[in-house]
Amino acid sequence: MKYLKSLFDSNREWAERISREQPSFFEQLSKQQNPEFLWIGCADSRVPANEIINLPPGEVFVHRNIANVVVHTDLNCLSVIHYAVEVLKVKHIIVCGHYGCGGVRAAMDSDNHGLIDNWLRHIRDVYRFHREELEAIEDMEVRKDRLCELNVIEQVSNVCNTTMLRDAWSKGQELAVHGWIYRLEDGLLHDLDVTVKGESGT
Q1: CB of 100 within 8 A of CB of 46?
Q2: Is 42 a catalytic site residue?
């Protein structure tokens, strides 16, 4: 018996539709990937990278984790960045968070969440860095939204300070890092205006 048959059926329908619309699509896709974008986003099932920016397979290299965090000891994330920058030569790295992020929400409470608390420590550090600004916001939902934004901004900085980015920029590689945030309620992206195009921070 085939488990999750509905997913296999959906896959077959999708593949057949794509083949009808673009007969050579899968043949060309199988030969290479040449994306211009690396997307570092949240693992939340409601925030799928390709769909949000309406790009087909092959156009976006993707790394996702809880609350779109970039940690200098996370070899998974660093390996993705390395491959994207050194091999794929992407032109843009997009760190995209989203309002209503469960990871950010959990980082703001005092409950014991188990193993994930070790990961949430990074978001709690962002809160600590910006405590005065955040605690001046009385509305808790607005405060959470602002922490979602500040978390993206912090992760942009973390990406920019990886050895891969610093080396690429020192060699003159064309590469920009952007901080965006997504609103679940309307499906729209918002630019947080923290684009970095080189070591100078411009």
Answers
A1: no
A2: yes
